[in-house]
Amino acid sequence: MTNVMQVLLIEDNEGDVEMTQRALRDSQPTCALSVANDGVEGLEFLRKQGRFGDAKTPQLILLDLNMPRMDGKKFLESVKSDAELRLTPVVMLTSSESPSDVNDCYWRHASGYVVKPFDVAEFSSRLKQVVRFWGAVSRLPA
Amino acid sequence: MINALRSETRDAILSKPVGAPEVRPNILIVDDRKENLLATEKVLRPLYANIFKATSGNEALSLLLRHQFALVLLDVQMPEMDGFETAMLMQEHDSMKGVPIIFVTAISKEEQYASRAADIGAVDYIFKPINSDILKSKVKVYLDLYVQRQHILELNAVLQQSNEELERFAYICSHDMQEPVRMMNSYASLLQEHCVDAMDEKGGRYINFILSNARRMQKMIQDILNFSRVGRQEVQIEQVDCNEIAREVLAEFDGVVAEKKAVVTCGVLPTLQTSPTLMRVLFQNLIGNALKFHGGDKVPEVTVSAEREEAGWRFSVRDNGIGIDEKFHDRIFTIFQRLHRKENFPGTGIGLSTCRKFIRLCGGEIGFESSPGNGSEFFFTLPESKR
Questions:
Q1: Residue-wise DSSP of B80-142
Q2: What one-character DSSP code corresponds to residue A51?
Q3: Fewer Cβ in 10 A, N or C end of chain B?
Q4: Is the per-residue pLDDT at A99 higher than 50?
Q5: Is some CB atom of chain A closer than 8 A to the CB atom of B218?
Q6: Nearest to B307 by CA among B385, B361, B379, B387
């Protein structure tokens, strides 16, 4: 087992991708961040299909809500109903504070719901906390 | 954008009657004798109305089922079903219940008939032989009332629809705008961080403009979202200790209180059945405003209290701030209306309108007493919960 934590970010906004990469540059544990641009790509990545043939299985998925083709909720449903994939923790990363969105995601077995902070420094520290918790604190069943 | 939409909607409502087709009201005359029908019809013909005729109570009811009438002229003495019976059957039907009835009779002149008629929807009682001028002007009054009522109903429907559209628009708009504003803010601050050496003093100032305006926009979006959420979500009623909510809200203002050396006094507040979100929104806005609107060197004093009233509770937040001219009463509760330049007192002009929207939804009311220079007292009432 390596010390590098595999994290998959599913996000369509380039700006957010770069912000996340920046935030996790010096995270503990160290992250290897892969990016899929929507739910369809996310599933291909997890199933190592198409251009994701040599993808590494992620230990954590960071998931945006609003995306083209397949949005966050649809993606969650697919992952959590797939026996192979369902144990991977999925943490929502979105700007929506809508109570119905929060509810919908937890009902679909999201492991966490993080509202992207407005402030850059807060955004970075929040993401580091999430990664630290899932990479170093929580223990998943083998 | 939303301001523009509001005034467009308002113009559309005000101008509606001009282009709208005139309402031509229907009158129903009921009499078992054809010659009476013809005579009455002749009197009413100059009026702007469609005249329907029926020779029996049954025929009248079947017309009433099919058409909407502004007024019924109903003969009292008719074979089979008389005028009173017809009127009583009308009262059982929701669609006919509100239609005004003028009873027309030759013999039942006693007082008791007239009062009986009033019980079953009669608005007037006239005796034969009919004075045509009086009949005409009486009928005209009811026609005018009907047309005005239809007009108001129409306006209300338009107003309600545009309000709903506006709120949906505000919600979707503000929800979707959060993302790009956050992006702009984030990258402007990254730019500030990264290019600090490459930028001259002007460049630094420009970036600060971007940042401060992005933050202001974010605050506005948040406030619009909160405003439009009131009413979209069901109000949750529970046992609420208002002291606890006030304590939590006051803790949020710790920094401001310390900075302004303000003195905040909170009386004993009740525990009651209400929405905790409502109480929080009201305290946040009213206490926030009481701390904000101060000028000069005066130490801000804010007093929160509540007293029992006949039908519920009256909460009050009093301050010794700059005060408000009461002529602005309507303006300060209207969304986006601000009385001061944002440089003097920052804000989005949404807080008090959110308060009023929320409190009205809960059956209460909000208001204030104040005069410039003498502080303000904002109060809101909450009715006793019926549980």
A1: SS-HHHHHHHHHTSHHHHT--EEEEESS--SHHHHHHHHHTTEEEEEESSP-HHHHHHHHHHH
A2: G
A3: C
A4: yes
A5: yes
A6: B379
Instruction: Give pLDDT, residue B142.
Output: 92
Q: Check CB contact of A116 with chain B, cutoff 8 Å.
A: yes
**Could you read off the pLDDT of B35-67 as tens digits, one per residue?**
999 999 999 999 999 999 999 999 999 999 999
Top pLDDT among B203 and B231 is at: B203
Residue of chain B minimizing CA distance to A100: B233
User: Are β-strands B122-127 and B101-105 bridged in parallel, bridged antiparallel, or unpaired?
Assistant: parallel
Q: Residue B10: its pLDDT value, please?
A: 42
CB atoms B175 and A98 under 8 Å: yes
Q: Most B CBs within 10 Å: which of A98, A120, A127, as the mutation test of the B interface? A: A120
Please report the DSSP string for B311-342 in residue order: TEEEEEEEE-SS---GGGHHHHTSTT--SS-T
Q: Which of A28-37, B4-13, B126-135, B294-303 has the lowest mean pLDDT?
A: B4-13
Kindly report the pTM of this predicted structure: 0.59
Burial of B387 (0-12, 13-18, 19+ CB in 10 A): exposed
Q: Which domains does chain A have, with CATH numbers?
A: 5-132 (3.40.50.2300)
